[in-house]
Structure formats: structure tokens, C-alpha cells
Amino acid sequence: MDHLSTLIPECLDLIITHLLLNNRQADVATLLQVNKTLAATALRHLYANPFQHPFHAPNKDIYNVDENGQGEEDRVKKGPLETIDALAGMLLSRCVLGSVPKVVTVAFPELASQDTSTLSTPSSSSLNYMTHIRHLNLCIPIAYTWQHEVLNTGSPTTTLAYLWQKEFSSTCGVADMLYSCRRRFNLEYATVALYHQFFRVQLMREVNWMLVNGFCVVGRSGDEDDRDGVLLGQQLKSLVIPASDMARYLEAVCQFKSLEHVQVCLDEVWVYPEEDVEAALEEDDDTPRLLKRNEDRKEQAMQDLLKFVQEHGRIFPGQLKTVTCPESNIWEPWWWASLPQNCPEEVQFRLSQSLPPLKNPSVLNKKNWMQFLAYPRETDLGAVWKIDMPLGWGRLEAYERVVENRGFLQRCRRLRTLMVGSLGKRAYKWAVEEKKAYLKNNSGGNNNYNDKRQESLLLQEDEIEDRHLYLRHGLVPLEKADIWGLEDLPLKDMDEIDDIAYAFSETLTTLSLNMPYTLNEDFLINGYEPTPMWTIRIGRGWIDLPNLRDLYIDARIARLFLDPELLVHCPNLVSLDLYDDVTFDYNPVEAIRDEYLPALLSKCESMTLLGWSALTFHPETLSSMRERLVELSMQTVCGRDDLCFILPSPLGAADESLRAGVRGGEPIDDDDELVDQLLEQEQEQEQEQEHERPGPGWYRWTWDWELPQLTKLKLNSKFAYEFQFRFLASCPLLESLYLNIHTNLEQTRDLDRSVMSIPGEKNRMNVLQKLRKLEMLGGWTVVGGDAFLEELLSRLCPNLEHLVAKHWNGVTPSGFLSILRKKDPISQNESPSMKPLYDEQQDRKECNKVRKMELAGKQMSDGDTSELIANLGLGLMYMRGDVDEEEVLQDVEFKLECSQYYVLKSP
């Protein structure tokens, strides 16, 4: 006897469950061939939920391979429909079906000739599959159906013939689609796909009902008379019900005595996008009738769904636990015909009110959120460790109920992850008060965070105002907080984020804030210089957060102001991301005023600052990032065509421009006052340097820090304009460099040998062996022209693969073409003797040339592009459509302005 058979049933169940959780269904299936004991146990697990997704996921890992192991391009695809259809056909053959609808016999011709009117024990196998089914989740992956079953392999001839019959077209529902949508499918293959889609929907509806309403054959012995049957619906615990077929399930509700979970599949199109409705109203007089008919059908389906849940609760009180109605989009593969369908929130809430309260939930998310809102006071939250409120619920009345009952957060004493929208001012004051009370009573001690106790925390009136819950249950051990402002409830007061940082300072590891992206009129009109809708300030009252690793704040169209000591309280940050989308231009006086203090961030690996947070950052903080910083981005907001704002500098040379009223190409107000303030600041800075006192960070961008681990550097505006290339000597691992100084002003930076030289060695240029991508936008002037360009790039970055050079001065397209790869490098497996024209030195040089190049600018666009290419490229450049693919170098591209060109192997 094998060792598995000697295990007690409980151990064997655990082993099989573990295998299935790791998608090892094939291993479990092999147990069916060992012996009856193992087969019975494996069968029970395999067929408890036979249509679950992992059993029928597309196989993307199987290739056609030859004897040498070389894989072909075409995969051997085994789509989900093939396995689903085979399984459904087998199960239907073991049920008493009665009459079989035409759509089913088309898909399963063998059922048409089978006698399904009497019970019969299957003779081909002694295994009883049907009696093990507890979950019938037959929800066909329709998106995969369209793309792979129809367009790639085509439908069977019998199916195609049935699709064009009037019997099908008159009942499938295509006639109920708006004309503006049907018109999109006028191509032959699209029409086939459309009809096939309706066929699959109708087939799923009928097969699901036949399985639920069919009798399973149960043969207790070999005796023909010793047989019985059981209705499959009576043993089901979970079921997917098509919304269009809800009426039939309502009539049979009394048979679902074991049902606990229902998922409604929105398998019809009831609601259309506004643009489709408007187009249909103009093109088809029958549109109002179709819209009214679809609305009535939706209303009827929703009413049947409500009655089903209510009747089930009346007949089997407390049995049905959950009813979900997720968004459905059966037209997803055709993006131009995307028609997502949703269950109205009012219906969802009424469904939840017809169900019992959640029982000891551990997670609150979109699947059970409505049910919780139906019974916020009756739900025990003692085991909740994660709250994930559905995004976008700020417009719902249900969300208002959350705000009204936000005291539920205080009852989640084991909460570790919180992802919610704004709950309003003072939403977390209870946590602040608990923290203050604890610090007062336990100064210097360890926080009493409750990790183990799980007590019943049903809401009691005396607990609502109880500020000492932590004495009984411990402080809440929150680790991750993700707060977002909603369009209808914007975060205008930031006490929520500040309260969270203070109250959970000891345990918080991740803190993020996302503001709503509601565009105001000024933003839409100006485009490149938006007017902030409001400002937000973060960091007031923060204390040390020793475990905070990730800080993410996206203020969107609000200007972001940070408390000067915010970063000082976060010494162990690994990732820092601070954004706003409104800071295009700047006033140095204001930036210096709002500057935050230098901080020690020795563990930081990635820092991305955009907007005001970048302008007020103190550069001395970079001195502490030497060991780990990998990615650094310092930018202000760019306008159209990557235009950014750079205040003319140095002040002595820019004084006349400023007094002329120039700012980003447009007049500015109070320019005299601004210039005077800047000059005064510069004088103060010079005086401070004379007395060896550190000045404001605004003047201390010396670029003399060492960041040996840096691989990605992205700068624009002031930061790119003041960038010193000598800094690159301390970044040997740099792979990507982005510098943007493109402005409406004719501000330039020279690129010559002295700028690129290693500090202290004027004759030696920096060498960045790892640099693969270089993007430099704006008035970069190559001193020496085309002759120096190749030397500059070949020495600075000899392994460069992607170059973006826009609006450069002093060079021509010809100069750039000289550094573009003109042939494939010699293969390592190819002998040099096999290439008669092989030049080892030339081939090695070719290997180091750029594969992808993007150019733009005034010098690049003068005259006709095609004529320019003809004169410069000597016939080397072609549009991809003008030449055979095999004649073009792979992955070698040349983009001039908006035109894309490719390089021929043999010019």
C-alpha cells in the first residue's frame, strides 16, 4: 500500500488543498488512478468547484520545440473554452435533462441523440462526479472567447450555420443593441465575433440552468433498479446566476436549501455610453423604444434578484450569506465597443439589507462593504485587519453612511492596513487621544499593541465615547495607510493624514495620500500654468516615525507645502515620492521661505520630487544618501512640448531680462520687487559664505555629492540648468540620464571638453560605461559642432543605446547620423572568416553605436523632411512600410520630428 493511503483523512485533505492552492490540479488528478480511497478523496476536491478559473486558465507556457530545444514562435494554446466545454458536456451527459434547447445541441451534438428522459447509471466509470459539486461558477471567460476562439481558430461549421439562422438572431439579443453599436461590427469577421458572443452568452445561460435543475445520477450498486437521483441545486453552496435568467431561478428558489453565496453575472447590455446614445438618437428613429425596452428589462431583472434574495431568506432564514454583483463587460476585447454594466448601488444596498450581518469578518472590501454598511453597529469588527474601501464611492449615499458611522474604525483593534477615502475632519482624533493618553500614562514604555487577543467588539453605546479602549485591547497596530480625497469630498483639511502619522507613529511603515484630480477652468485654459484650486500642508505635529519606509503624497492640483521638520522625523525612509501638478514657475523668495530642513535619509533608495516639494528641498539631504540611493528625480511641472520655466541666472546677467518683465515667455507682476528681493538674497548669501555660515539650500546645489549606487537621474528646470557634469564622476552605475532645459527663453548651456572633464583633469572626460539612455532637451550647445559630437558621446557613454536630443544647437542631423548604428554586430557564434568584408575594428566600433535616436528642433525641421533625409541619409532611411522587414536592422530606429525611419542592412 502506498504511503498516502495510510494517512488519516484530515492530513490527506490538507495535502490536496495545498496542491490545489498552488494550481497543481494535474498532480491531484493523478491520484484518481492510484486506488479507490485516494480517488474518492481527490474527486471530492477536484469536483467541489469544477469551473473555477485556475482549472481552465489559458496555458501560456507550452511551446512547440524541436529536438534541440529550440522553441518556435507560435505557442501551443489550450484555451479555456476547450476545457470548459469538455467538462460541461461530460456533466450534462450524466444528468437527467429532459428537453434540450437547440443552442445546447449545437454546442454538444452528442446530447441530441442521447436518451435523457430516464435515469441511467453511467457504465464507463464508477466515479460519481455530480454528487461532489458544491460550487457552480460557470462564468465563461468571454473576452478570451472573442480573441482566440473566433478570430484565431474560427467556429465549427455547425455553429456558424446556426448563427445565421433566424431562429437564433431573433432571440439572441442582437436586435436590442443600439444601431450605433451594431454599426461597429460591419466587417465580416467582426460580425461573426458579435454573433458568436451572443451564442456563448446564451449557451452559458442554458447550460447553467440545465445543470442546476438536472438530477444527478446516483448508482448505489450495480443493480439497475437500485438507483437514485439528487437535484444538483439542493447541494450547491455557491452559484453564479445570469441576470437575464433570474426569473427562472426565482421560481425554483425553494430548491436552493444549502446556498450560501450568489454571484450575479450581468450578461446583457442595458446601459450604453452617452456618445452612443446620442449617435443612435440621430441615426435611428427606433432608438427611444430600444432604450425603454432595455431599461424595463434591467428593472425587471433587478426586481427578480431582490425577490430571490428576500424569498430565500424567508424560506431558509440566515442561510444565504453573501450576494455580489460585480461590474461586467462582455464586450471588453473590442475597446471601441466597451459597454460596462453595473448593478445600481441602491439595489446593492437593498440586497445587503436582506442578508444577515457579516460574521466576524477579517477584511472589509468591495465584496462585503455594502453588507457591512447595512449593519454597521451589529457587525463584530474584532478580527478585521484590513479595510479596502472601493474607490469612487464618494458620489454614493452609501459613502455618506460611512462618514456618519466612522466610529467603526475605533473598534478595529487589530487593523494593520487601511485604504479609504477621506472620512472628514477629526476622523482619527480618537487615535490621537489614545496615543496621548498612552504616552502620558506609559512614558518611556513599550506600546501595548494587540497582536494576539481577538475579543468581541460589537458596538455598545458606552464604548462610542470611551477614550480608553487601548487599556482593554491595546493600541491599534496600523502599518499601512492609504488615504485619498474624492472628487465630491476633497481633502481641504489635512488633519487626517497628520493625525494618522502621530497616532500610529510606532507601527506605520507606509503612508500615502492621493488628492482628487478635479480640473478647474484655469487649468484647462492655460494648460502649462494652472492655478491651484487650494493648497495643502502636511507634517504639522508629526513625531518620529522610526518604522516608516514609504512616503507617497500626490497633491495633484493642490500646491504641496511640507512642514520644515517632516523629513527629519522619517530617518528610515526607503522610498520618497512627493508630487503636485501646479508648480510651473516659482519665486525663489517664497521657495526659501518654505524650505524644509536637511534630513538624514541614509536608507533611501528612491526619491521623486515634483513641483513645490522639489523647489523647497534642501540639497544637503543628498549628502546622507550616498550608500543606497538608486533613483533620483527633481522636477517642476512642464507645459506643452516639455516646456519648463527657468529663472534667468546668474542674477547679474539676468537683471535686464527680469526688469523687462520676462517669465516663461509671458509678463509677470511686480518684477521690480522680485528682482530686488533676489538681489538682496544673493547679497545675504555672499555675506554668509564669507562668515562660513551655511546659507539657504536654494544656493547650495553644488553637485559635489557622491552617489555611487545611482542608476537613474531625472532633472528639469532649475535643477537641470544648474547641473554640473562633474557630478557624473561619482555615479559609475548610472544607466539613464534625463536633463530638460527647454524654455521659451533662449537660455543655453555649453557642452565642451571642459564641462565634461573629470574634476582636476581637464584632458580626461567622464566615462559612463553603464549609461544606456540619454535624454537632453533644450538649448544644449555642442561647442565644436558635429566633429565634437561623436567624440563627446563615444567617450562619455560608449555603450549608449537610446539617445533623445531635442532643440540642441551647433549640430546637424548629419552629425547624429554618424553615431547611429548602420549594421548588426557580428554574432558571437559566427566565425569572422564567414564574412568576407568583416573588419574587426570597424565591427567593434559599430557595436557601440546608438540603436534608437529621437531628434527634434528648429535645425532639424527646416525644409521638407523627406528631402532632408534623402540628402543626409544617402538612401539609408526608410519608413518601415516601404521596405521588406527582413532588409531592416532590428531594433534600430531613427525618429526625426514626427517621422519614423529605419535602417537598411544593405544601403
UniProtKB/TrEMBL annotation:
Stored InterPro entries: LRR_dom_sf
Superkingdom, natural source: Eukaryota
Name of the featured protein: F-box domain-containing protein
Provenance organism: Linnemannia elongata AG-77
